[in-house]
């Protein structure tokens, strides 16, 4: 008698041995058999998401068939259905185990280690999965297991500091762990732009093309900065075509969908949709606590649940800020020579509260403060004049409206004399970038934030 539950338990136990915890959680934990028809041999299996369905069909179905045969001389025909979230369970066979963070690092220390600028902390092992990112994490794992064939390109998009770079680099680490000779290229989109411009200046285009068109995995971070750069887009298009035709994997991240990137050429928009586009959304409280707990463990930090809970409740959208809050609490404890507890966390994060209070800030107030600061008027800020003395303050005011209020892009556009939301988006991008390169703008934004926060 073939007992489906027992078989599934056996299969899962085997899978647990063959796969890392991260992979096991992604593919097996929330997968379970629904039914088995002895006559037709059809076994219906409920999987959690379309990504998981695709992965099972392509990679795990044959293992399941083999294991059923090994377990009970049984021929089965698995069929996968995307179902609601329910209980987990278990399964079969061999496949190289995905390596742990430590093993990856050891491998990378060998003679083939490449100067990749990958952050050694950004691996699958250190990535905490939750509601907002598990689809993206599943897709990233699928790509890492099957580069160039499964989802090509993989396009990960979502808000600031939500783990896009982390996931993208995890794919790079895993590929190198499995194939230390693989050529993995990770770049910020701006590096691609600069490299391209330099290659024209220095007449080294052949080298440039060799670098980007002869790799096994190309990871391009923050691709929204290709916006409005026609020449760069043309070059990237050819890079993309070459890699794609050679079945080399391309992974990109962006803060928004390709269709929302201003002036991104139609052919790139359509190519970026050939593979899979997955969004990462802000983590829920439970995931934020899990991320903090993991980080505290890694840093050897003794911190109780109620304090973790408190910190996680203070920062709700950006994981980078969440990590920053933990560091702040830690620093406060060191300085004050006190143990970490809720009261200390409250003290350490008091200024965060101030930022939260700013959520009640009006755009008109921001316009007024910015206009005064730059000795212009709110009418000019809302107007159409395109001289530098007005354009920069206007863009800063738009940027601050985005940063310090909950207003949407269209709403901000409306408050600035009925401008289009893409104008606001462009202003925000421009100031974000200027903050890294332009000391004057950085100082102005810093001053203005201080004024608006008090
Ligand atoms: N799910 C997660 N588990 C553990 N750490 C995470 C997770 N998500 C994000 N982080 C951490 O949060 C920080 C910010 O993540 P990351 O830089 O990947 O964000 P991003 O989405 O690429 O941001 P940006 O839009 O600014 O490029 C990193 O230190 C990263 O390790």
Characterization of this structure:
There is one protein chain. 56% of the residues lie in helices and 9% in strands. The chain is an alpha/beta fold. The chain has four domains: 4-82, GMP Synthetase, Chain A, domain 3, CATH 3.30.300.180; 124-279, Rossmann fold; 285-359, Helicase, Ruva Protein, domain 3 (Orthogonal Bundle), CATH 1.10.8; 363-451, Chromosomal Replication Initiator Protein Dnaa, Chain: A (Orthogonal Bundle), CATH 1.10.1750.10. The strands form two sheets. The chain has a five-stranded parallel sheet, with helices on both faces. The longest helix is centred in the first third of the chain and has 23 residues, at 50-72. The relative contact order is 0.07. Residues 85-99 and 107-114 have low confidence and may be disordered.
CATH A-level architecture of the largest domain: 3-Layer(aba) Sandwich
Low-confidence stretches: 85-99, 107-114
Ligand names: adenosine-5'-triphosphate
CA-atom Rg in angstroms: 25 Å
> What's the SSE pattern?
HHEEHEHHEHEHHEHEHEHHHHHHHHHHH
- Helix/strand-derived class? alpha/beta
CATH topology value of the largest domain: Rossmann fold
| Strand arrangement across the biggest beta sheet | 5-6-7-4-8
User: What fraction, in percent, of the residue positions are helical?
Assistant: 55-70%
* Strand segment count: 8
Would you identify the CATH H-level superfamily of the largest domain? P-loop containing nucleotide triphosphate hydrolases
Basic shape: globular
End-to-end CA span: 74 Å
Number of domains: 4
Strand proportion, as a percent range, falls in 5-15%
Region (Domain III, AAA+ region): 117-333
Binding site for ATP: 161, 163-165
GO biological process, one term: regulation of DNA replication
Subcellular location: Cytoplasm
């Amino acid at each position: 008698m073939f007992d489906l539950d027992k078989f599934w338990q056996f299969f899962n136990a085997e899978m647990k041995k063959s796969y890392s915890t991260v992979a096991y959680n992604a593919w097996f934990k929330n997968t379970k058999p629904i039914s088995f028809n002895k006559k037709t041999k059809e076994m219906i299996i409920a999987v959690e998401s379309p990504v998981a369905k695709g992965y099972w069909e392509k990679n795990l179905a044959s293992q399941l068939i083999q294991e059923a045969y090994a377990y009970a001389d049984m021929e089965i025909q698995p069929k996968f259905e995307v179902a609601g979230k329910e209980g987990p369970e278990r399964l079969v066979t061999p496949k190289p185990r995905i390596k742990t963070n430590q093993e990856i690092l050891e491998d990378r220390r060998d003679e083939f280690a490449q100067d990749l600028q990958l952050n050694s902390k950004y691996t699958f092992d250190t990535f905490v999965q939750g509601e907002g990112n598990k689809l993206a994490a599943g897709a990233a794992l699928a790509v890492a297991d099957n580069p160039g064939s499964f989802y090509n390109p993989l396009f990960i998009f979502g808000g600031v500091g939500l783990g896009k770079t982390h996931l993208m680099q995890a794919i790079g680490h895993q590929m190198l762990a499995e194939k230390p000779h693989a050529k993995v290229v990770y770049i910020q989109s701006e590096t691609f732009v600069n490299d391209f411009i330099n290659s024209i200046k220095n007449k080294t285009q052949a080298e440039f093309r060799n670098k980007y068109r002869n790799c096994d995995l190309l990871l391009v971070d923050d691709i929204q900065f290709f916006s409005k750069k026609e020449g760069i887009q043309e070059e990237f298009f050819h890079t993309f075509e070459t890699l794609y035709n050679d079945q080399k994997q391309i992974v990109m991240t962006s803060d928004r969908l390709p269709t929302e990137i201003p002036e991104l050429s139609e052919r790139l928009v359509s190519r970026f949709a050939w593979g899979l586009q997955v969004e990462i959304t802000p983590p829920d409280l439970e995931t934020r606590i899990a991320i903090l707990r993991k980080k505290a463990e890694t840093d050897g930090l003794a911190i109780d649940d109620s304090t973790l809970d408190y910190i996680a409740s203070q920062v709700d959208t950006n994981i980078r800020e969440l990590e920053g809050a933990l560091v702040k609490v830690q620093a406060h404890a060191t300085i004050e020579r006190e143990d970490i507890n809720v009261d200390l966390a409250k003290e350490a994060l008091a200024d965060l509260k101030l930022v939260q209070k700013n959520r009640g800030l009006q755009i008109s107030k921001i316009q007024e403060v910015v206009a005064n600061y730059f000795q212009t008027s709110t009418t000019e800020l809302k107007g159409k004049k395109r001289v530098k003395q007005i354009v920069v303050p206007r863009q800063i005011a738009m940027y601050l409206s985005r940063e310090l209020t909950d207003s949407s892009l269209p709403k901000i556009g409306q408050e600035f004399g009925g401008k289009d939301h893409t104008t606001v988006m462009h202003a925000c991008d421009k100031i974000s970038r200027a903050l890294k390169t332009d000391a004057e703008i950085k100082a102005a934004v810093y001053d203005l934030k201080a004024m608006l926060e008090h």
